[in-house]
Amino acid sequence: MTAAVTGRRVAIVGVSLSDCGRVDDATPYALHAQAARRALADSGLGREVVDGFASAGLGTLAPAEVAEYLGLRPTWMDSTSVGGSTWEVMAAHAADAIAAGHANAVLLVYGSTARADIKAGRRTGNLSFGAGGPLQFEVPYGHTLIAKYAMAARRHMHQYGTTLEQLASVAVQARANAGPNPEAMFREPITADDVLSGPMIADPFTKLHCCIRSDGGAAVLLAAEEYVQDSRSAPVWILGTGEHVSHTTMSEWPDFTVSPAAVSGRLAFERAGVRPQEIDFAEIYDAFTYMTLVTLEDLGFCGKGEGGAFVEKGRLTLTGDLPVNTDGGGLSAQHPGMRGLFLLVEAVRQLRGEAGEGRQVHAADGGTPRLAVASGTGGWFCSSGTVVLGRG
């Protein structure tokens, strides 16, 4: 590291998705490669500039196996694995490494055939993350992954009067945002009654309160500022990041109504030098409707306990006061597991003004949005990574 490169600004210069939704004829490695090639093409930069690589969720020696498959030999790597927040945390680490001169261009890649594997009988749905370590004290009692989120939602309902109709409105608005998105898996409109009358999964969550299961991959290329002039696409700058680990077992979670985004969000906004009120739109991890609601509270878009009222009346739609999950999110667009990288892809596309007709969000003045936040959550609110992004 030399003084000449220390403190460099960092931009996202390339993003892409692989084929998503129902992909029965590809391996996870192939989806990684497809997303990576597309992201590099989007950036206009050659693969030779990539000296950093980050991946998680595939292979025994991730990210070494995936890097080898892609023909990369990185001198900086990251294999952080904290569930859905992995990619926001990795983006933070990559930005720090580039700013410090430890890498010049870092590629983040993910791919999964979660849906196809179940359909083909190659795997089954997992009820929990395992029964080892601290989790051994919860698993014997049938405390499933979904049940943990459901308990937290019930606590919020009890403590603040949040209603099932308010939670259902999150799913309805996510589906409305998915409508004009050709890459979304489910696009037909739904109503609150559709959500409330669906089959019960874990009280109070019916089927449409829960994310979909899809196949798909995504890739994001971060690069130092000197590479921006050679990039094909407009840069989206990393303005501030934050990360936080809260708990593993439910017994160690101090408050079911507070997610780790309360800490990661505060850090990201402070480091970016912006306030939540300045954000044009938000991309939030939404494995369940309650995740969207409580994360909005914890990021500071409304007060604690006010999330139910905040999400009503179309505020989260593409033309609402605060568009949220503008691609349809994990509730409607795609969710192949560990979906946090998809949040960054969508945020960059919107900030560039490339979302397309009927999908592009706008700033309050009618122009292209200037500021966005992407906040990923891992486990059952165990960890959070938040990234504030800006155009220009």
TrEMBL record:
<dbReference type="Pfam" id="PF22691">
    <property type="entry name" value="Thiolase_C_1"/>
</dbReference>
<dbReference type="InterPro" id="IPR002155">
    <property type="entry name" value="Thiolase"/>
</dbReference>
<feature type="domain" description="Thiolase C-terminal">
    <location>
        <begin position="242"/>
        <end position="391"/>
    </location>
</feature>
<keyword id="KW-0808">Transferase</keyword>
<dbReference type="InterPro" id="IPR055140">
    <property type="entry name" value="Thiolase_C_2"/>
</dbReference>
<dbReference type="GO" id="GO:0016747">
    <property type="term" value="F:acyltransferase activity, transferring groups other than amino-acyl groups"/>
</dbReference>
<protein>
    <submittedName>
        <fullName>Acetyl-CoA acetyltransferase</fullName>
    </submittedName>
</protein>
<dbReference type="InterPro" id="IPR016039">
    <property type="entry name" value="Thiolase-like"/>
</dbReference>
